[in-house]
Amino acid sequence: MASPKVAVVGAGVIGLSTALCITETCPSCSVTVLSDQFSPNTTSDVAAGMLIPHTYPDTPIHRQKQWFRETFTFLFAISNSAEASEAGIHLVSGWQVFKSTPKEELPFWSDIVLGFRAMSEAELLKFPQHQFGQAFTTLKCDCPPYLLWLEKRLKTTGTQMYTRKVADLWELHSEYDIVVNCTGMGAHQLVGDKQLFPVRGQVLKVHAPWVKQFIRDGDGLTYIYPGIHRVTLGGTREKGSWSLSPDPGATRDIFDRCCSLEPSLQGAQDIEVKVGLRPSRQCVRVQREVLSQGGVKLPVVHNYGHGAGGFSVHWGTANEAAHLVGECISALQGSSSRAKL
Amino acid sequence: MRVAVIGAGVIGLSSALCIHEQFHGLLPSLELEVYADRFTPHTTSDGAAGLWQPYLSDHGNLQETLWNKETFDYLLGHMHSPASKEMGLYLISGYNLFTEPAPDPSWKNIVLGFRNLTPKELELFPGYSYGWFNTALMLEGRSYLPWLTNRLTQRGVKFFHKKVESFQEVSGDGVDVVLNCSGIRSGELQPDPELQPGRGQIIKVLAPWVKHFIITHDLKSGIYNSPYIIPGSEFTVLGGIYQHGNWSEENSAKDHKSVWDSCCRLLPALQKAKIVDEWSGLRPARPSVRLERESIRLGNRQAEVIHNYGHGGFGITIHWGCAMAAARIFGNILQEKKQLATPPGPRL
């Protein structure tokens, strides 16, 4: 197999980063990205893109930590380079505050982010309703810039990108040797994964350029994440809701909760409301599968189900998926050489 | 009781406000007038980035450290008020970088979360082997000065756009107290060889992805002669010039290149930042702040002058502590003149 043809379905942060990893681990591959949506209309574009991991109940912690570490290292290098502003990657410091001291005071990722420590008494004075807090510095991926930067890098490798709605993976078997499924919430329909469920998130993107620090409530529901041009205020976690329409009641509630953490937000301008469906799963599905139909085989690599933690682990799962693609290629080459005998 | 304030930078306006707030209630006849040839946005305070941070060492000047602390605590107390945005006041974290270990500063317990940098953080800054991280405050002159002006105007304080040539000029006509907040040009009102310009030059860029201040230190070159990057609410300030004795307010191409090159080396992403402005200013440097009272004989009258100048590159950092001290001196003057109303005692 001289030049395996790989189709990556999905152009959010998972699809684009996976495609890029594949071009790096398998330079002889021809990679094509197919998606019905590209930036700025993907779920990734709604997310703030903060590198603060979500814990997946059924993925071993060491694997989640490895994914996060690889992602952090990758983005750290970009943030420190001349490309940082174009890629939308920047460092941001801030606080995670808890109304009551959490059972786990040291999360698994505390030694990967920078300068992690408990908040001092003086710092906690700013949050009269909160008893405990953690201060650290982490990275943020602003979208659309980050996705556009990934697209730009992909184009330099010769990767083609097409707007196309893939209704069935088998549509692709005649044109492509391997299919990589990075369809996020779309996998529910596309591969019938009933373990995948939406967790609806509504956010406000506001103009408040004096906000330089992030503040996050440990319950994950209320957060203030300053991006390059806008501050993301969140949010909601509505399990099982498929609605992409903004809810005015939620807008008011999010704004009030954020203002109670940071009163100066009362002066925020230009409030934009956005909604995304976190493609949630008990564990991220990074897995090889060979689909079979009427004697024809189609190797598939799945990389979806990142829920609330897509940005935090994207490069790690992209690497893993790219390795699985490598395995698919070896298997194909093995079977094709067998066929020659 | 008429008080003339000379100077409308952060020191003049805040001292005026502090005095009016404390004494107008007790002395309804108190009239304040502010005289200045430069008002916001043309004062030295407007050019400053606005970061609250004293110099590395207070040289044993405990009084200044206390005034710095008073200012920080006062500003921190305003953080939760709805006025903070209008004041140009917000929290900001960042880095102080050194090429060798440095002793902890006098302000380490004033700021929030002061700690040393970890090895991984130092990887961000090749060439620097030691440093601090802390959370401090920004108080942007371009917002704070208009805010102070509004508060003063609401209180009936009058403003006069004129260059004051002498204390005599403002102290005639029933003015009993002159508050001298004339900053770098105090020497024109009364010679002071200890007051010298500490010339700075800054470049303002659009770099909204920068969320931290980064201040480098070269312990041999002295303060502010090493690159610094301070993100404001609209622009990011790049600086690193301190020229003692240089009175020029013209931008220098050589200084521009020095600031630009050194800041881009510190933060490579700045290479893509768009330059929007450039400015030079004169820090009113003095071995210590002059904050004291002087009785001046002017013709056949005596006037009390309260000097409050010489705040170098830390005017915003120290301003409120000094304003309060000036107000205390003013209170003493009022007591001496028996101007403070005391309730009549029983007539026996």
TrEMBL record, chain A:
Its recorded reaction(s) are: D-glutamate + O2 + H2O = 2-oxoglutarate + H2O2 + NH4(+); D-aspartate + O2 + H2O = oxaloacetate + H2O2 + NH4(+)
Listed cofactors: FAD
Return the protein name: D-aspartate oxidase
The FAD dependent oxidoreductase domain covers which part of the protein?
A: 5-324
Signal peptide location: 1-19
Q: Name one GO biological process term.
A: L-aspartate catabolic process
**GO CC terms in record:** cytosol; peroxisomal matrix
The organism named in the record is: Acrocephalus arundinaceus (Great reed-warbler)
TrEMBL record, chain B:
Per UniProt, the keywords (alphabetical) are: Cell projection, Cytoplasm, FAD, Flavoprotein, Oxidoreductase, Peroxisome, Phosphoprotein, S-nitrosylation, Secreted, Synapse
Q: Which GO terms describe its molecular function?
A: D-amino-acid oxidase activity; FAD binding
Q: What is its EC number?
A: 1.4.3.3
One Gene Ontology term of the biological-process aspect is: D-serine catabolic process
Q: Which residues bind FAD?
A: 37-38, 44-45, 49-51, 164, 312-317
Which positions does UniProt annotate for D-serine binding? 228, 283, 313
| Residue stretches making up the FAD dependent oxidoreductase domain | 2-328
Q: Which reaction does it catalyse?
A: D-serine + O2 + H2O = 3-hydroxypyruvate + H2O2 + NH4(+); D-tryptophan + O2 + H2O = indole-3-pyruvate + H2O2 + NH4(+); D-phenylalanine + O2 + H2O = 3-phenylpyruvate + H2O2 + NH4(+); D-methionine + O2 + H2O = 4-methylsulfanyl-2-oxobutanoate + H2O2 + NH4(+)
Amino-acid positions noted as binding D-dopa in the UniProt annotation, renumbered to this chain:
53, 217
Q: Which cofactor does it need?
A: FAD
**SUPFAM superfamilies xrefs:** FAD-linked reductases, C-terminal domain (SSF54373), Nucleotide-binding domain (SSF51971)
- Which Gene Ontology cellular component annotation is one that this UniProt entry carries? presynaptic active zone
Among PROSITE patterns, the record links this protein to: DAO (PS00677)
Principal subcellular localisation of the protein = cytoplasm
Where, subcellularly, is it found? Cytoplasm, Cytosol; Peroxisome matrix; Presynaptic active zone; Secreted
Family stated for the protein in its record: Belongs to the DAMOX/DASOX family.
Query: Could you tell me what this protein is called?
Result: D-amino-acid oxidase
